[in-house]
Amino acid sequence: MTSQIRTEHLETVINNHAQDLTNKFVVITGTTSGTGYVCAREVAKKGATVILLNRGSERSKKSHQQLIDSVPSGKFIAIECDLQDLNSVRNAMQIIKSKYQVIDVLVNNAGVMALKDQATIDGYDVQMQTNCISHFLITKELFPLLKKSDEARIVNHTSMARLGSPLEMKYFEKKGGNLGGNGTEEENQNFQGPRWERYHQTKLANCAFTYGLKKKLKEKGIKNIIPLLAHPGLSLTNLQVTTAADGGMESNSGFMAQAQTAEDGATGIIRATMDPNVKPGDFFGPVEGWKGFPDLLTPEEHLYNDSNIQINWEGCENAVGKFEI
Question: Which fold would CATH assign to domain 2-319?
Fold first, then answer.
């Protein structure tokens, strides 16, 4: 099934919507596979120094070497960063701040999907901390370095799962393992139930974070930092493998026959990272929803309403401290 899927859009995006990144510093989370790996590879081809943030593992070492092999002229720096451990995130940020004076692009790419109802070492839901709270912390800590860039970008990753119920504060609290359980097999196979609601909350939170940033930057008159949003559609990445292994979905689901490649799934964040014509709040993803070229999308109203923005901002600040814009 997967061998019949071809990459259709990556070359067009690189040729028509990407600029030179020589002397630019790009930080990307979750680069061991999938969209993050492809984004890291492509920005390195354009001359960027790429800082790779991943949990320490043989897999991360292997993917780092694969990136070096695929772009021999590329500049890749691996820094250990476990998004499920806030101390690990803070340590990684201290390393970056001690070595670099400026960051030009931050791509908050990493994510997990529909995992069991369990807490991180910090007590938060594993999905919310991995997908949102830790990225909020990274953005907060790197903000002074982003401010020093002539044109900095903060790229957040969402998905079709952004559509649904409004944000609820309980998902940002130390209630990991007590947020609805794991759902029935039928619910999980139909992308319903508590696992998928927790996932939806994280993907909506990433949108609210983007538009909260846009609002706060405008209020402060900061014009050199551009918050952006992207979604991959349905792509063949390790996200589905991990979820299936955890019991969140059927590993050989016919639904995945509709998927596009990881290369095409990465084109949204690649365009947000490199398109020379972006504006604050631009949202890139396939117009058809599940697959297709990463066009400029009109964000649904609930992605930027005041309530969702406030819940996301307060929930994340309660977890990791005040974010001074």
Answer: Rossmann fold (3.40.50)
pTM for this entry = 0.93
Name the active-site residue from 124, 171, 199, 211: 199
* In the block, residue with structure tokens 């912390």: 137
DSSP per residue, 33-70: SHHHHHHHHHHHHTT-EEEEEE-SSHHHHHHHHHHHHH
β-strand partners of 52: 28, 78
Helix (H, G, I), strand (E, B) or coil at 162: helix
171: annotated active-site residue: no
Domain boundaries in the chain? 2-319
Q: Which amino acid is at 33?
A: S
Is residue 203 annotated as part of the catalytic site, yes or no? yes
Do β-strands 49-54 and 75-80 pair in parallel, antiparallel, or remain unpaired?
parallel
Q: Which of 203, 214, 215, 291 is catalytic?
A: 203
Q: Model confidence over 46-62: pLDDT tens digits?
A: 999 999 999 999 999 99
Query: Which pLDDT does position 256 carry in this prediction?
Result: 54
Nearest CA to 107 out of 172, 42, 166 is that of 42
Residue keyed to tokens 């910090």: 122
Q: φ and ψ at 294, to 5 degrees? A: -80, 85
* Phi, psi of 79, rounded to the nearest 5 degrees: -125, 125
